[in-house]
Amino acid sequence: MPKQAWPYRICLGILLLGLLVLPWTATASETSMEGYREIAAFELKQLLDSDRKVLIINVLSKIEYDFQHISGSINIPIVQMLTSDRLPPDKHTILVFHCLSDR
């Protein structure tokens, strides 16, 4: 095989992989964000100052949580969310999920 063919094949492989993954990521973000909204810091402050039950859940790793987190928040890493027993049983509690990204 000629030396010039390798870069072409690598680029083609990366492009094909991207085309395979792209529809899955678009679908995941549409379904996972349905029914949820982002709030600004001042909105969170208003919620915390109100008489409503609010729980801030930091979904980062324990190491990241230990380094820096919002006071009063609890840590449930995203990989443990479905199996955690730390979510409140009261369905009227407002859950605010906090991470370092907008995704």
Strand content: 5-15%
Assembly category: single chain
Order of helices and strands: HHEHEE
Low-confidence parts: 24-32
Give the count of structural domains: 2
Return the average pLDDT rounded to an integer.
79
Q: Spatial order of the strands in the main sheet?
A: 2-1-3
Query: How many beta strands in the DSSP annotation?
Result: 3
Description of the molecule:
- This protein is of the alpha/beta class.
- Helices cover 42% and strands 12% of the residues.
- The protein has two domains: 1-35; 41-98, no CATH class.
- It has helices at 5-32, 41-49, 62-67; strands at residues 54-58, 74-75, 94-98.
- It has a three-stranded parallel β-sheet, covered by helices on one side.
- The longest helix is centred in the N-terminal third of the chain and has 28 residues, at 5-32.
- The radius of gyration is 20 Å and the shape is elongated.
What keyword list fits this structure?
103 residues, alpha/beta, 2 domains, three-stranded parallel β-sheet, elongated
Question: Short description, anyone?
Answer:
The chain has 103 residues and is an alpha/beta fold.
Topology:
Blueprint: H1 5-32, H2 41-49, E1 54-58, H3 62-67, E2 74-75, E3 94-98
Parallel strand pairs: 1-2, 1-3
